[in-house]
Design a protein that fits this description.
Rossmann fold; OB fold (Dihydrolipoamide Acetyltransferase, E2P); about 350 residues; hydrolase; single chain; six-stranded mixed beta sheet; alpha+beta; binds magnesium ion; binds adenosine-5'-triphosphate
């Protein structure tokens, strides 16, 4: 199937550097791709180029198979047939809700029907005659969504559209928005700097850093197979043990890890997430037996334990085992309240398949 949106080799120089540096991606109908990355990595600039409010220095933008921007062509934003939704989704204050939604439509029966349909979709039936100042933030946001969808754009570009909403409302609106966009079959490119939002919304995440896409994958895959340490750290706190490769293996307090493809002497990081650390009590100096899944358990001493709501964070100082990983700090998350006293000795195991080995940079 032909993608609704396709960009190839987009480059944009601003302030003497390339803030968008060779970005390529495509989005199919009904798919939500999240452009995710830290502040300043070039997300909005990419979106602005696709919308046509900024121009690339090189590269091609295709919408529905048609070139809308390349070295010679530049279609005006209003002729590109994309829906736009930004953080400051200002509604027209002097127009009522129905007029706001109908703004981009030709007047008539069809427009009225479309407005009624969309009011229903965004769960605002009966709100048509209200004015924006009479609505809550979440309601205004839904009107903005309806307005952007009214002309049936094949592609929707959204830049941090939920960041103006408070936390609880945000989850609700995100899910509602997703449902509406799926029903409409719109191809969506959504910009966010929040990993949780991307994980929740995306069919595919394009992780950006310094103007480049460093990884493109479905949420599950990007979380469980990050390309590098920074990519892993973008989605949660991480633990990191240092090691050196000998014969495609590296030693850690948790036993040997496979490090295939690395030359002897390469310094590597063994990275794992706190929720993949298992904790066991010490039984007279003994811990659980080693298993194929979790390797060798290792001993650590509790340094600090905090309850943070759903779970507890327990920080351990690892014991020196034959000079391997001496003194490394490892954090484990434990569901519910679990607050062992500092100084308590416990056994830690990590799920092998949840560990990543990366070269140290
Ligand atoms: N007109 C400009 N002149 C010079 N530099 C610019 C200009 N516009 C943007 N930049 C720079 O380009 C970089 C990318 O900006 P962009 O707005 O695309 O980032 P972003 O990923 O959307 O960040 P945020 O998450 O904070 O919105 C930033 O470092 C920004 O300072
Ligand atoms: Mg931005």
């Amino acid at each position: 199937m032909q993608p609704r949106l396709q960009i190839d080799g987009l480059v944009r120089f601003l302030g003497g550097r390339s803030v968008v540096d060779d970005i390529s991606l495509s989005v199919a109908a009904g798919q939500v791709t999240c452009l995710l990355g830290p502040s300043g990595c070039g997300k909005s600039t990419t979106l602005r180029i696709i919308a046509g409010v900024d121009r690339q220095d090189s590269g091609v933008v295709r919408l529905n198979g048609q070139i809308v921007a390349d070295d010679t062509r530049h279609l005006a934003p209003e002729t590109r047939g994309v829906g736009l939704m930004f953080q400051d989704f200002a509604l027209f204050p002097h127009l009522d809700v129905a007029e706001n939604i109908a703004f981009g439509l030709k007047r008539g029966k069809a427009a009225d029907a479309r407005v009624a349909e969309l009011l229903e979709r965004v769960d605002l039936r009966g709100y048509g005659r209200k004015h924006p100042h009479e609505l809550s933030g979440g309601e205004q946001q839904r009107v903005a969504l309806a307005r952007a969808l009214a002309p049936r754009p094949k592609v929707m570009l959204m830049d941090e559209p939920f960041s103006g909403l408070d936390n609880r409302l945000r989850d609700e609106i995100r899910d509602a928005t997703l449902t509406v966009l799926r029903d409409e079959g719109t191809a969506v490119l959504l910009v966010t700097h929040e990993p949780d939002e991307a994980m929740r919304m995306a069919s595919e995440i394009a992780l950006m850093r310094d103007g480049r896409i460093v990884q493109r994958a479905a949420p599950y895959n990007i979380y469980n197979a990050p390309v590098d340490r920074k990519a892993a750290a973008f989605f949660s706190d991480i633990n990191c043990l240092e090691g050196v490769v000998r014969g495609a293996l590296t030693e850690t307090p948790f036993g040997q890890f496979l490090a295939p493809g690395y030359e002897d002497g390469t310094a590597v990081d063994i990275v794992f997430r706190p929720q993949h650390v298992r904790i066991d009590f010490d039984r007279g100096g003994r811990g659980p037996a080693p298993t194929a899944e979790e390797g060798t358990p290792a001993r650590g001493t509790v340094e600090r334990a905090r309850f943070i709501g759903k779970e507890s964070l327990v920080e351990f100082r690892m014991e020196n085992v034959d000079g391997r990983g001496a003194g490394a700090l490892v954090t484990a998350t434990v569901p519910a309240v679990f607050l062992p006293k500092p100084g308590t000795v416990m056994w830690l195991s990590i799920r092998r398949e949840r560990c990543f080995v990366f070269p140290q940079k």
